[in-house]
Amino acid sequence: MKMASEGSNADWMGTLPPSLSALPLANLAIPGSHDSFSYWVDEKSPVGPDQATAIKRLAKISLVKKIMKKWSVTQNLTFKEQLEGGIRYFDLRVSSKPGEVGQEIYFIHGLFGITVWDGLMEINTFLTHHPKEVIFLDFNHFYAMDKNHHVYLVSRIQEVFGSRLCTKECVEDVTLQSLWGKQQQVLIFYHHPLYEEYPILWPGNKMPAPWANTTNVHKLLQFLETTLGEREKYGTFHVSQAILTPRVKTIARNLIRGLKNTLVHRNLPFILNWVKSQKPGIMGVNIITSDFVELVDFAATVISLNKLLLEDHKS
């Protein structure tokens, strides 16, 4: 299933009116995806180092891996399809493959996904064809990675994106117009001390993403409201994670149904209604992430919130 009004969302940033493309990106409403790369996970590879020892033992049974897949996959769309649908923020967890020779880094969520190199190349191809679109890549979890792995990963990021990478600056200075002027399209957030050594790595604390860690949609929405109210007025972006997190007993009771059928389907209408009631701007929503972004017109709903800023500007 493709995202509704897909074509019109592929260039949504480039078609914003000048009054909005001049605003700090931290004040715009931007759609993102949770565990963005998890549309494909490898059932044949070993279980990832992000999992507990007990799970690793259990996963030697092939059925267990099939069940893990149902709970590891949080997106159906590839990077390209997400980008075409309007998604501009990507939540990335990465790992080396223990026992594998070399420095190769993979996306991970319980099971290993595609290589980071392949994912970044796919994203870069989209950016080549859409020069006014800007993306946020949030590398927020690292597993089984030493300093050499990190240096290798950053060199790959630089190799793929080159001059498209936006160097660290004051958050309030980052507008679409300023980035277009420099032909920069990619902001990398790196939740590891190595960010200090590279001008193109933004510290993780510039992209706070409070996590509700609940299966209850009403608790989630209350949490989103509370954390928005506590948002820093200046100096950071902000992620509202509109996601529900399964507990062990949730998975145990619904082994075969998986995440999408157990938690996501029935709660997405509540989440979407919350999104529709929001407003971007200082102390308002900025980046909003969701699971299975194509199940409802999530991206278009988030993007449409920017019209409210236009009304403010007119008045």
Structural class: alpha/beta
How many helical elements?
A: 13
Q: Which percent bin holds the helix content?
A: 25-40%
What is the H-and-E element order? HHEHHHEEEHEHHEEHEHHEHH
Low-confidence residue ranges: 1-7
Mean pLDDT: 86
What's the shape?
Answer: globular
Count of DSSP strands? 9
Termini gap = 39 Å
**Radius of gyration, Cα only, in angstroms?**
19 Å
Amount of beta strand: 5-15%
For the largest beta-sheet, the strand count, sense and barrel status come to:
9 strands, mixed
What would you say this structure looks like, in words?
The structure is a single chain. The chain has 315 residues and is α/β, with parallel strands linked by helices. The protein is globular, with a radius of gyration of 19 Å. The chain has helices at 6-9, 18-21, 53-58, 62-72, 79-84, 116-129, 147-161, 176-182, 217-229, 248-253, 258-276, 298-304, 306-314, and strands at residues 30-33, 89-96, 105-109, 111-115, 135-143, 186-190, 201-203, 239-241, 287-290. 41% of the residues are buried.
Give a short overview.
It contains 13 helices and nine strands. With 315 residues, it is of the alpha/beta class. It starts with 5 loop residues before the first helix and ends with a helix.
Helix/strand layout:
Layout: H1 6-9, H2 18-21, E1 30-33, H3 53-58, H4 62-72, H5 79-84, E2 89-96, E3 105-109, E4 111-115, H6 116-129, E5 135-143, H7 147-161, H8 176-182, E6 186-190, E7 201-203, H9 217-229, E8 239-241, H10 248-253, H11 258-276, E9 287-290, H12 298-304, H13 306-314
Parallel strand pairs: 1-2, 1-9, 2-5, 5-6, 6-7, 8-9
Antiparallel strand pairs: 2-3, 3-4
Helix pairs in contact: 6-7
